[in-house]
Design goal:
Helix 4 runs antiparallel to helix 6. This protein starts with a strand and ends in a 6-residue tail after the last helix. A three-stranded antiparallel beta sheet has the order 3-4-5, with helices on both faces. Strands 1-2 form a two-stranded antiparallel ribbon. A hairpin with a 4-residue loop joins strand 4 and strand 5. Helix content is about 35%, strand content about 15%. It contains six helices and five strands. It is α+β, with helices and mostly antiparallel strands.
Length: about 180
């Protein structure tokens, strides 16, 4: 806000004017991390792209795509090719309602209530009825195949991530991929 961004996972505040002063640039524009990832898509070569499903397009042929990420939250940004350049679209996709996958109550849940590291851990702990506080998302992923609750949590997580991503592809008309 006002050329300043407070980081989510660190006690840092980044200020456009200060970065401009330190680097001697003429124009600094702070953007959301997924917006930066989306803008990098046209710079990727075919060896940088891993096809999960569908047909592999040449990266330079991308007209509409999205970038998604799961971390402390769920992020997404769109990329649209214009006649002469690309435009990115930051979003707050993690705040979209997503009750059906994670809750049978009447409360409103968001996508990142489950599609995030903390959300994944919370779902796993609810499934296992554990009260420990030292479990991380990495621990849950590492327990797949050894712990039925971890395997079930990751399967549900993967299904939810696929569903959310496919909905975002539809919403952005991102026919060139995610």
């Amino acid at each position: 806000k006002d050329g300043r961004v407070a980081m989510t996972n660190a006690a840092w505040v980044v200020d456009e004017a200060e970065v401009d002063r330190l680097l001697g640039c003429h124009h600094i524009c702070l953007v959301n991390d997924l917006e930066a990832v989306a803008r990098a898509i046209p710079e990727l070569g075919t060896k940088d792209v891993h096809l999960l499903q569908g047909n592999l397009h040449k990266v330079t042929d991308k007209y509409r795509a999205i970038a998604v990420n799961v971390g402390t939250g769920f992020g997404a940004a769109g990329l649209i090719r214009t006649r002469s350049s690309f435009v990115t679209l930051a979003s707050e996709a993690g705040h979209m309602s997503y009750d059906a996958v994670i809750s049978s109550t009447k409360t409103t849940a968001t996508i990142e209530d489950f599609l995030s590291g903390p959300g994944l851990v919370a779902h796993y702990m609810k499934t296992t009825k554990l009260k420990r506080k030292d479990i991380s998302a990495r621990d849950v992923f590492a327990a797949v195949g050894k712990d039925p609750s971890a395997s079930e949590t990751i399967a549900t997580f993967s299904q939810a991530l696929g569903r959310a991503t496919s909905n975002l592809v539809l919403a952005h008309a991102a026919w060139s991929g995610a």
